[in-house]
Amino acid sequence: MSRSRRRAALAAAYLGTFLATLDISIVNVALPTLQTALQTDIAGLQWVVNAYAICLSAFMLSAGPLGDRYGHKLAWLAGVFLFTIGSAICGMASALGPLLAGRAVQGVAGALLIPGAMPILAHAFPEAKERAHAIGGWSAFTALALILGPLLGGLLLHGAGWQAIFLINLPLGLIALALGLWGIPERKHPEQAALDPLGQVLSVISLGALTYGLIEAGEHGFTGTVPLTALLLALVCLLLFALVETRTARPLLPLALFRQRTFAIANLASFILGFAYYSSLFFFSIFLQQIQGWSPVETGWRMMPQFLMTGCISVLFGRLSASIPVRHLMIAGYGLTAIAMSAMAVFSADTPYWIVGSLFGLLGLGAGLAVPATGLVVMGTAPAERAGMASATMNALRQTGMSVGIALLGTLLSNRAMHVLADSAASQGVANATEVARRAVTQHRMPDAPAGFLQLYTTAMESGFHLAMLCAGLACLLAMALLLTLGSAEE
């Protein structure tokens, strides 16, 4: 393989992952703008993020077998093509429904792009040292996408409108396609590929029903018929999924690996990291824009310390892990994340930015340690022949955690805020206070608000944000406690 083609393959893999990762962070800055433009409620905003995250996590486990059976190049190119089409659908959407459809297409495509980069790089760079540099650069590009997402999103919203955050993917997608068509060599292993269509269907239904039930609980309460039915369906499909996976020769999810305690705890920690850290962008966008009143551009750069710190620590992680045991770095990462998120439970509309930015940076420091350490522990405990499946499992659980975090923590935020606002509005003599509070919190609509109502709304949203951050912090504390139970012999 010529050097020029290897460089093209490298650039294509980097750009494809950049696109898929960028859309995890860039959309969050646009959420309040989307709420106004599409006249949707907070549940609609949760779905804007989760339509992508659900499809990404649910289909990620099938990406490896698809690449093995039909070719890694073909699967990756299909991912870029689908991602470009999904971005076009999102950019042309004039209502919530088409936008969610486009986001779902993006999620399926992302499931092919993100894990698909690794076998492409491994094949293009067979020499160990070159491969390490290539994968290190891939990790840096992933961090760069997360760093640039909020800032780029704010600038595009300010200069070109919300559609631009999706339409920018079109030229980038075409460039990635051209590079991939020329530079990536085809490779397939159909004899080792085993698809699990029934498991795939059950996983999609289970995750979708779980997310739907948690989001609907924000509107109807956890005892409502709709959320209870959805959650029951999710439980039934989850049990059926587990049954199918135990009886399938090559399952979608390797349940047998979870008998290894370290593997199980590390993957639970990965789920919690998605639940608390990766979902936090959704809540930070609401806090900075709807509580503190910043514009999308200002919100974007105010989020930067979190991603800059994550990127810097990720670059230095190799040196740190050479002198400090990975398990200790992992424990420190989850501990710092727990401290940062718990401390955010005292944020208010008047909290100065030096405090907000410092805690964002501390959160980024914790995640910068936790993410690569979790990956190393998971890969270190899985058999070499199951490494690909172990990596896909860890990433899928992390994305699933993000979906559940946005759904559950978002529901807790809105329920708490509605309760506080309804009580305070009623005490101020506001007529039909419960309905007024519901519209204000879920739809950000306050057309006939009396004097002082905006302050009541801000206080109520602060209360909901505090509850969400406290729950996220406690979840990370739980992960740290579980990791502390692992002895050095299991490291």
Description:
With 491 residues, the chain is mostly helical. It folds into 3 domains: 1-195, Growth Hormone, Chain: A; 197-249; 253-491, Growth Hormone, Chain: A (Up-down Bundle). The protein contains 19 helices and no strands. The protein has helices at residues 3-29, 31-38, 42-70, 72-92, 96-124, 128-160, 164-167, 169-183, 197-220, 225-247, 261-278, 280-291, 296-302, 304-323, 326-343, 353-381, 387-427, 433-443, 453-484. The model has no long low-confidence stretch (mean pLDDT 86). One of its GO terms (cellular component) is plasma membrane. This is MFS transporter. Belongs to the major facilitator superfamily. EmrB family.
Give the gist of this structure:
With 491 residues, this protein is mainly α. The chain has helices spanning 3-29, 31-38, 42-70, 72-92, 96-124, 128-160, 164-167, 169-183, 197-220, 225-247, 261-278, 280-291, 296-302, 304-323, 326-343, 353-381, 387-427, 433-443, 453-484. 54% of the residues are buried.
Number of helices: 19
CATH third-tier fold name of the largest domain:
Growth Hormone, Chain: A
- Corresponding CATH superfamily of the largest domain: MFS general substrate transporter like domains
Kindly provide the radius of gyration, computed on alpha-carbon positions and rounded to a whole number of angstroms.
22 Å
User: Number of domains in the coordinates?
Assistant: 3
Name of the top-level CATH class of the largest domain: Mainly Alpha
Strand content: under 5%
What's the order of the H and E elements?
HHHHHHHHHHHHHHHHHHH
How can the largest sheet be summarized? none
Query: Overall 3D geometry?
Result: globular
- Uncertain runs with pLDDT below 50, 5 residues or more? none
